[in-house]
Amino acid sequence: MRISDAKVFVCCPGRNFVTLKIYTDSGVYGLGDGTLNGRELAVASYLRDHIVPCLIGRDPSQIEDIWQYLYKGAYWRKGPVTMTAIAAVDVALWDIKAKALDTPLYNLLGGKVRDRVMVYGHAYGTTIEKTIEDVNRHIESGYVAVRAQSAIPGLSSTYGVTTARAYEPAQKGLPAEHSWSSEKYLAFVPTLFEQLRTAVGNDVHLLHDVHHRLTPIQAASLGRALEPYRLFWMEDATTGELQEGFRIVRQHTTTPLAVGEVFDTIWDVKLLVTEQLVDYLRLSLRAGGISALRKIASFAEMYHVQMGSHGASDLSPVTMGAALHFDSAVHNVAIQEYMPHSKETLDVFPRAYRFADGYMHPAEAPGHGVDFDEALADKYPYDPAYLPVNRKLDGTLWDW
Ligand code: KDG
Ligand code: MG
User: Fold this and answer.
1) How far apart are CA 259 and CA 246, in angstroms?
2) Phi and psi angles of residue 134, each rounded to the nearest 5 degrees, phi first
3) CA 354, CA 311: separation in Å to the nearest integer?
4) How far apart are the CA of 169 and the centre of ligand 1, in A?
5) pLDDT cut 70: percent of the chain above it
6) ∠ at Cα 47 (59, 93), nearest 5°?
7) Cys staple from 190: which of 146, 225, 350, 395, with CB 3.0 to 4.6 Å?
């Protein structure tokens, strides 16, 4: 079998997605997701202009060799655009291989190690009361794990919180500017979780995302203040570029730590893993695809670090569908983030995975089980949107 062609589609069924379709001379095709929120066209060009010409004529079964060729052959290694593009190719090739062998993808990854994948949903509210209501709504609809975010009193907007029914991190047009105060945030969040734990009891996993907004010592103090409420994890407590920064957080708190949705390669987690500075890695298939994430998970497993992949709705259903095969087959996967896609998005990506009672089930069809309706996608042209930037109250740019 040979790769005969590959096409890149950029569409906006509710939000922007980049989809790679790799065709073979046997008629089998594979789909990969090349979406990088707010930088979609950079990946589309990387794929169209630099990768697709190098794929034609290759044997699609040589997934590892093609991965190495694209990673090492570029000379310029790593980076979100490169790794998202490689991920799109890698996932499409795994899809082709599983379809060619007429089996669900998890079978090529060692087979299932669990019957279903625990997921966490996103609850949020403009007040503590509304956040508690939303957490309860999630519990009533079956979730056993819920992330809770609440608007910070005194700040005009809070990332991760909206009054709309569905949360979308990117906004149309140029980047919005949000305001930030670590002091107001640190004074508020322990009260949120105190009231939340009292309201929902101990049987549900509660999670929280700090979105990298604290310094290591501030993160340490928040982790310590949250200990009585037994979080499943505190995510992105501080920025991850300086992996050593997590030593400070770790020294001061037993609240479990998760990090990694913005990381691209195994190198970004080396110190975090070998020094056991975090409990969960949040890299998704966007970080180089299934071939890369398998190695990261095996490395993490040696150090008692578990996986809990990023699953925001700005990754397409192709990533979710493929991730569920990874999650089903990899032993040290603990949980998967699940932010449901809009109806327009789901219509463009027919799929066979499903949610039931707080857990996700991978497709049982051959491949990863997610398809792409090109004709429908054509009706939703690319519409520029950006993630917001964040400024402290004095105007200084802060991490978002
Ligand atoms: O594109 C950025 C979003 O995916 C991210 O902000 C969502 O933090 C997020 C999460 O944990 O899902
Ligand atoms: Mg996050």
Assistant:
1) 10
2) -70, -35
3) 14
4) 7
5) 100
6) 35
7) 225
Ligand 1, atom 4: closest residue by C-alpha: 312
Query: What is the identity of the amino acid at 275?
Result: E
Bridge partner residues of 307 (DSSP): 281, 333
Residue 175 is classified by DSSP as P
DSSP 8-state assignment for residue 273: H
What's the full length of the chain, in residues? 400
Contacts of residue 53, Cβ cutoff 8 Å, sequence gap at least 6: none
**CA of 162 relative to ligand 1 center, distance in Å:** 14
Over range 97-101, report the average pLDDT.
98
CA distance 128 to 131: 5
- State the Cα–Cα distance between residues 17 and 33, nearest whole angstrom: 8
Q: How far apart are CA 219 and CA 133, in angstroms?
A: 27
Q: pTM for the complete prediction?
A: 0.97
Ligand closest to Cα of 259 equals 2
Strand bridging mode 171-172 / 397-398: unpaired
Positions marked active-site:
159, 211
How far apart CA 132 and CA 195 sit, in angstroms, is 8
| Ligand 1 contact, 35 CB (< 6 A) | no
**With 70 as the cut, is the pLDDT of residue 232 above it?**
yes
User: Could you tell me the two tokens for 104?
Assistant: 């669900």
- Around ion ligand 2, residues with a beta carbon closer than 5 Å are 209, 261
314 in contact with ligand 1, CB cutoff 6 A: yes
What's the count of helices (H) and strands (E) in the chain, helices before strands? 13, 18
pLDDT classification of 400: cutoffs 50, 70, 90: low
Task: Answer yes or no: is the C-beta of 337 below 6 A from any ligand 1 atom.
Answer: yes
Burial 101-110 (b: 16+ CB within 10 A, else e): eebbbbbbbe
Q: Where are the alpha helices (DSSP H) in 2-100?
A: 40-45, 52-55, 63-73, 80-100
CA–CA distance, 65 with 59 (Å, rounded to integer): 10
Q: Whose CA is nearest to atom 1 of ligand 1?
A: 37
The pLDDT-based confidence of 166 (bands split at 50, 70, 90) is confident
